[in-house]
Design goal:
heterodimer; A: about 280 residues; 12 helices; B: about 300 residues; mainly alpha
Chain lengths: ~280, ~300
């Protein structure tokens, strides 16, 4: 009997094998997907569906969170994360270009240092940064948060970008330079168009890291009108009462952009590389 | 010369930021840990207290408990289960049967959902499912497994398994997907040779697949140690280190002591302990991961 070359390595599965695999697969898929879907539909039900009597569809949860000022958190998050992503991506492209194109002293040590940034315990930086920010009036400031998120996405972005850039042949740059182009022109006119999907994927992922960051926001933003989405989401957890409808609507609002941005780029993000790059 | 100037110009902005945000703070953290600096008295600064913070730390009864939580629950349990489940799912998705059932691509898509769900939201989702009258309790009661609803995130017997479960739901998919992509690079001849020798499916897994995946598993395991050990959000958002301080870990203790008790000096001393412990893992990281990443990338 002939079997397709790609899967020749397993013998033709028997009926019981199919059943076992099917059951395992269904259980796994259910556990993976059901919680997210449950919350999505719960966000359209009173009290998130906890009161099982109330089956009705409602958008009141969404209305309520925006009345409670959720729009403000969205604006804060967008401003801080977009600014940080743009600055971080530009600085990272500059650094990554040099790492991928030149040999220079301390190159390996510098790159190692950047890789080290990926596993650095952020929590340890909170106290000294808070002290420094307090003296420089950067607590409760957009600028402080933008700087923080820029710095904390750089190691990841440089690592990802160097990975993409080494795949672009150096001869491309050299040919352009012989034709009289400057290095900046090479980056802007040759590298950027070729590597655009990689740059966009990296920037998007960096944006998502900021969008969902909780710890720095918690420490550095105490003023309600400056808080970001993740903090806003958790303000619906009261001390002795949780407004589940609002919490779930806020969760959906937080997560939907993540899914919409994540799905198109995931072909460009290799899980193996990400696993070695994010905390 | 012009080239050197170009290199420096291009690297400088990123490097300056990294030094300001990683290099400087770690030294300042060391300095703060020798003072009694308070969050409320930052203007006047802290007084030098030498090793007092460290002495206090080792003499406190609860520090052992915090270390135990961090090492055993937050790190060891979650990392081991994450690798096991990730491997299990990867192998499952790669089976012939799975392809025959045309479920492989559906399953890959399903893995993206928990992976793309931000940790802050993953905790919300599970807090809701694990509510007293939530869907998990309801199901367990209907199946007559329990007679009383369990307060999963408040009951001392249930709280750690619950936190670990939340972490696993959120992080296993990435491990599974990256092991799956390694699985797909196992050379076909390996399997053919094993098959010719009459190996059973288990033997093929044990002597062909597993050794091939081992380097990837090691790297993922080590990275996983870093994510878990340093993680703040899962414990903080799921239980706030409670009930009481039952699920307190090093990361939440740093935050609690610094920002709830206002003792930045003492909090920094705990931070230094974390940095030292991670430094030990950092050496492993340099040897096993960073060097490999460097070779692969540069």
């Amino acid at each position: 009997m002939t079997v397709p070359a790609s899967s020749r390595h397993w013998r033709e599965p028997g009926a019981w094998q199919l059943v076992v695999v099917l059951v395992l697969a269904i259980v796994t898929l259910f556990v993976l997907v059901y919680p997210a879907i449950y919350v999505f539909f719960g966000s359209f039900r009173p009290a998130g569906g906890l009161l099982s009597a109330a089956e009705t569809f409602t958008i009141r949860n969404y209305v309520r969170i925006f009345q409670a000022g959720f729009g403000r958190f969205i604006i804060n998050s967008v401003v801080i994360c977009v600014a940080a992503t743009v600055v971080s991506t530009v600085l990272s492209i500059m650094a990554a270009y040099v790492f991928s194109r030149f040999t220079f002293r301390f190159k390996r040590a510098l790159f190692m240092g950047i890789l080290f940034g990926q596993v650095f315990p952020w929590i340890v930086l909170i106290n000294p940064l808070f002290v420094a920010f307090a003296t420089m009036h950067l607590i409760n400031s957009y600028f402080g948060m933008i700087l923080t998120y820029t710095a904390f996405t750089i190691p990841f972005s440089v690592y990802m970008l160097v990975g993409y850039l080494v795949t672009v042949p150096k001869s491309l740059d050299e040919a352009a330079i012989i034709d009289g182009a400057s290095r900046w022109q090479v980056i802007w006119l040759i590298i950027c168009p070729v590597m655009l999907p990689g740059f966009v994927a990296t920037a998007t992922y960096a944006f998502l890291l900021c969008w969902t960051e909780y710890l720095f926001a918690l420490a550095f933003l105490t003023q309600t009108d400056l808080k970001t989405l993740p903090l806003g989401l958790y303000q619906f957890f009261g001390d002795d009462y949780v407004d589940w409808g609002a919490v779930m609507a806020a969760s959906v609002v937080t997560t939907l952009p993540v899914f919409l941005l994540f799905l198109p780029i995931q072909g460009w993000i290799s899980p193996g590389r990400i696993a070695g790059a994010v905390k | 010369m012009r080239e050197r100037l170009f290199i420096v110009t291009m690297l400088l902005p990123a490097m300056v930021l990294l030094v300001l945000f990683y290099g400087y703070p770690i030294f300042d953290n060391l300095r703060i840990s020798f003072t009694d600096l308070s969050l409320l008295g930052m203007k006047k600064g802290g007084n030098w207290v030498g090793l007092a913070n460290y002495r206090e730390l080792f003499h406190r009864g609860d520090f052992g408990h915090i270390l135990f939580n961090t090492f055993v629950w937050l790190t060891a349990t979650s990392v081991l289960l994450r690798l096991l489940m990730g491997l299990g799912i990867a192998v499952l998705l790669n089976t012939r049967a799975m392809k025959k059932l045309r479920l492989a691509s559906v399953a890959r898509f399903a893995l993206l959902i928990p992976w793309a769900t931000p940790p802050i939201v993953a905790v919300v989702i599970w807090r809701f499912l694990l509510e007293r009258n939530g869907v998990v309790n309801e199901t367990l009661m209907r199946l007559n497994i329990i007679s009383q609803p369990i307060a999963f995130l408040a009951d001392m017997r249930a709280v750690w398994p619950s936190i670990v479960a939340i972490m696993l739901w959120n992080t296993v998919p990435l491990i599974a997907l990256s092991l799956l992509s390694s699985l797909q690079t196992v050379p076909e001849e390996y399997y053919e040779a094993a098959e010719l020798d009459g190996a059973t499916n288990w033997q093929v897994f044990r002597f062909v697949t597993l050794p091939f995946l081992m380097p990837a598993i090691l790297v993922l395991g080590l990275m996983s140690v870093f994510w878990s050990f340093n993680n703040f959000v899962y414990v903080w958002l799921a239980t706030g280190a409670g009930p009481g301080t039952f699920t307190n870990v090093l990361a939440t203790e740093v935050y609690l002591k610094g920002f709830v008790d206002f003792r930045l000096g003492y909090s920094s001393a705990i931070g230094m302990m974390m940095a030292i412990i991670m430094g030990a893992f950092g050496i492993l990281y340099l040897r096993l991961v960073a060097r490999q990443q460097l070779e692969e990338t540069l």
